[in-house]
Amino acid sequence: MARLGGGRTDSGLVTLDEAAADAVSRVQPVSGTMKLPLAEADGHVLADAVIAPLDLPPFANSAVDGYAVRFADLAPGAATRLPVLGRTMAGEPSALLEQGAWRIFTGAPVPEGADTIVMQEDAVAGDGAVMLPAGIRRGANLRLAGEDVARGHEVLPAGRRLRPQDLGLLAALGLGEVTVRRRPRVALFSTGDELTEPGRPLGPGAIYDANRAMLRAMLARAGAEVVDLGILRDEAKDLEQQLRDASAGSDLVITSGGVSVGEADHVRDAVLACGTLDLWRVAIKPGKPIAIGSVAGTPFVGLPGNPVAVFVGFAFVARPLLARLAGEAYVPPRAHPIRLGFAHARKPGRREFLRVSLEQGVDGSVVARRHPGEGAGSLASLAQSDGLIVLAEDVARVEAGDSAPFLPYAELL
Ligand code: AMP
Ligand code: MG
Fold it and tell me: What would the pLDDT profile of 159-170 be if each residue is shown by its tens digit?
């Protein structure tokens, strides 16, 4: 049933990389931008590159509390005594220094003529003069105008998902608002006759809907505006109508459950009745089945039902797709090597994600410990771990003490 020609493994599964690339290729960035004050811009995607309207720092200033001097007035290789002729505090205009020393404070403009600042800790002041030690470096403790950012240069690229430090930079440049892209609207629902809304009584054979709470938060962190459509029953006609309704005004429809191969495939039938669908068997563990297609012209992603499979499928397939929808310059999650505190043998062929916690050993080194909950349904294993060890498709076994790529959840969310 997998549609892809390339990227198949021996068993007819689609590789994760191929699935993600194909998913991303199916969507275009949303159009529409808006201006937001900096106070509301965190996590939004920059519509255009930001060009610095001024130098940073805007003027030469002192990095320390001390004395501004002209380097030429210091005796080479010996201490120098100079009269203190004035002082400048932060926020005051720049003075003029023709000779001697000038008392100066951190952030204050350096007097014109001065080219070096001596820290007050290195100086001995008294009687209107100051004794400066030998060995001062020319240009010491001076922050030059434009040394951090030069006016006219690009400081942030289009597509940057704004972070706190980016907002700090924009503020330092005097920009009170910023043009960002509209956030993608994502319609979300869960499917399954067994599902109950948290907070309601649990009937026989029922379980609470866990996926929607998780996906709502993952979508929000990915910058989406979530339209929460609740729980849908396993009934193809109802599902079809709900899918049609959900697609109107949304940039993406995302569901969980009802796509496992061999089950009563309600989601598949409903999507096919109003759109297109490929049901991929992706070469990952957990998370194999992922449905992708469109409903009434709107892109559709159908994640599996098991919560850990949902988490993995979202992180590695839906997240890059959302990044493209959002117009975000997406950086795929970067894994760092970490030492394993366990051995693991398996049948190669799929990329496997093991839930681990990081522990610091007695020697201070960090070791990854596997969570005992291994099943694709174990929410505790996700909630009680720090991230995922990634085993490449061809890896058959790892030993305790081996190094393996680790993806902290912070990289995925
Ligand atoms: P399905 O793909 O619909 O057959 O679901 C696979 C497994 O995931 C079953 O055990 C379902 O009960 C469970 N499941 C499906 N949807 C959810 C959900 N929203 N929250 C928690 N578990 C779910
Ligand atoms: Mg189901």
Answer: 999 999 999 999
Instruction: Estimate the share of the chain in helix, then strand, then coil, as percent rounded to the nearest 5.
Output: 20, 35, 45
What integer pLDDT is reported at residue 353 of this predicted model? Answer: 97
**Any atom of ligand 1 within 6 Å of the Cβ of 36:** no
- Which residue's structure tokens are 């993995």? 312
Separation of alpha carbons 104 and 118, rounded Å: 10
Q: What are the start-end ranges of the H helices in 248-327?
A: 266-274, 307-313, 319-326
pLDDT of residue 5: 39
pLDDT at 306: 95
Segment 336-352 mean pLDDT: 96
| Cα 356 from Cα 386, distance rounded (Å) | 6
Question: Class of 61-143 per CATH?
Answer: mainly beta
Q: Write out pLDDT tens, residues 93-128.
A: 999 999 999 999 999 999 999 999 999 999 999 999
Write down the pLDDT at residue 11: 59
* Domain residue ranges of the chain, discontinuous segments joined by +: 16-32+182-326, 36-56+147-181, 61-143, 336-412
Q: Which atom of ligand 1 is nearest to the CA of 234?
A: 3
Its CATH architecture, for the domain 336-412, is Beta Barrel (2.40)
Q: How many whole angstroms from 262 Cα to the centroid of ligand 2?
A: 11
Write out the two tokens for 252: 């993406």
Give the C-alpha separation, 178 to 32, whole Å.
14
Q: Tell me the best of 188, 189, 191, 195 to mutate to test the pocket of ligand 1, counting ligand atoms within 8 Å of each CB and taking the most.
A: 195
CATH of 36-56+147-181, one of 3.90.105.10, 3.40.640.10, 2.60.40.1180, 3.40.50.720: 3.90.105.10
Query: 293, 337, 294, 286: which is closest to 314 by C-alpha?
Result: 286
Whether 356 shows a pLDDT value over 90: the answer reads yes
- CATH of region 16-32+182-326: 3.40.980.10
Query: Would you say 83 and 68 are in contact if contact means Cβ atoms under 8 Å apart?
Result: no
SS3 assignment for 59-106 = CCEECCCEEEECHHHCCCCCCEEEEEEEEECCCCCCCECCCCEEEECC
